[in-house]
């Protein structure tokens, strides 16, 4: 088995028992003292436990003792774990969006987004979840089969891109795009915006 095949193994959610690709799951590791710690980047050492990227699955894992079963030992689940996970997922997504922006793969603003969509090289279209419905609907129609995401607020997009009031974004195909799309999909699933 090649290392890339090993990276694509299926993971099982300790809360739901459902299996899936790690792209839509969140890995947890144990910190010293048996404290459950989100491993958003999937780089912490030791045994991991996986939870589907949704608040409901995480709540179930916490309430039903899923982490103790997943780690096969008594563990401590810190207060505010759900907020900590959401903040970590958001930070990873916004960092990836910033990287794609620095690579010149991000356009924002309704007219620029519309022009970028007409070129046919869009990997993902973002519309702020608190943006105007009519503008979001126009972009949705223009996007066609392009992957769309409405998981982020205008403020989150504005901060990530350092521009004034960002509501519509097109992320074009490129080397830095894949990481952002993955992180955006996890935020979307976690926030229930799918």
Please provide a written account of the structure:
- The structure is a single chain.
- The protein has 194 residues and is α+β, with helices and mostly antiparallel strands.
- Helices cover 44% and strands 19% of the residues.
- It has helices spanning 3-7, 55-63, 66-71, 81-102, 110-119, 133-143, 154-161, 177-191, and strands spanning 11-12, 19-20, 25-31, 35-38, 49-52, 106-108, 122-127, 147-149, 168-172.
- A hairpin with a 6-residue loop joins strand 1 and strand 2 (19-20).
- Helix 4 packs across helix 7 (154-161), helix 4 packs antiparallel against helix 8 and helix 5 (110-119) packs parallel to helix 6.
- The chain is elongated, with a radius of gyration of 18 Å.
Mean pLDDT: 92
Question: What is the number of helical segments per DSSP (H or I, 4+ residues)?
Answer: 8
Q: Tell me the series of helices and strands, N- to C-terminal.
A: HEEEEEHHHEHEHEHEH
Shape: elongated
Percent in strands: 15-25%
Strand element count: 9
How would you classify the helix and strand content by structural class? alpha+beta
Cα(first) to Cα(last) distance is 33 Å
Low-confidence stretches: 1-6
Please list the strands of the largest sheet in the order they lie side by side. 6-9-7-8
Compile the SSE list and pairings.
Blueprint: H1 3-7, E1 11-12, E2 19-20, E3 25-31, E4 35-38, E5 49-52, H2 55-63, H3 66-71, H4 81-102, E6 106-108, H5 110-119, E7 122-127, H6 133-143, E8 147-149, H7 154-161, E9 168-172, H8 177-191
Parallel strand pairs: 7-8
Antiparallel strand pairs: 1-2, 3-4, 3-5, 6-9, 7-9
Helix pairs in contact: 4-7, 4-8, 5-6
């Amino acid at each position: 088995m090649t290392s890339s095949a090993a990276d694509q193994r299926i993971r099982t959610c300790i809360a739901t028992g459902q299996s899936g690709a790690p792209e839509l799951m969140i890995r947890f590791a144990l910190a010293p003292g048996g404290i459950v710690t989100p491993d958003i980047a999937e780089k912490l050492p030791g045994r991991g436990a996986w939870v589907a990227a949704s608040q409901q699955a995480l709540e179930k894992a916490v309430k039903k003792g899923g982490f103790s079963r997943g780690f096969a030992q008594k563990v401590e689940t810190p207060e505010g774990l759900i907020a900590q996970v959401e903040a970590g997922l958001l930070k990873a997504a916004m960092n990836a969006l910033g990287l794609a922006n620095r690579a010149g793969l991000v356009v924002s603003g309704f007219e620029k987004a519309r022009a970028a969509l007409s070129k046919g090289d869009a990997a993902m279209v973002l519309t702020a979840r608190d943006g105007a419905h009519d503008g979001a609907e126009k972009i949705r129609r223009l996007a066609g089969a392009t992957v769309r995401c409405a998981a982020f607020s205008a403020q989150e997009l504005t901060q990530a891109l350092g521009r004034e009031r960002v509501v519509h974004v097109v992320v074009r195909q490129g080397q830095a795009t894949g990481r952002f799309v993955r992180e955006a999909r996890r935020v979307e699933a976690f926030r229930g915006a799918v």
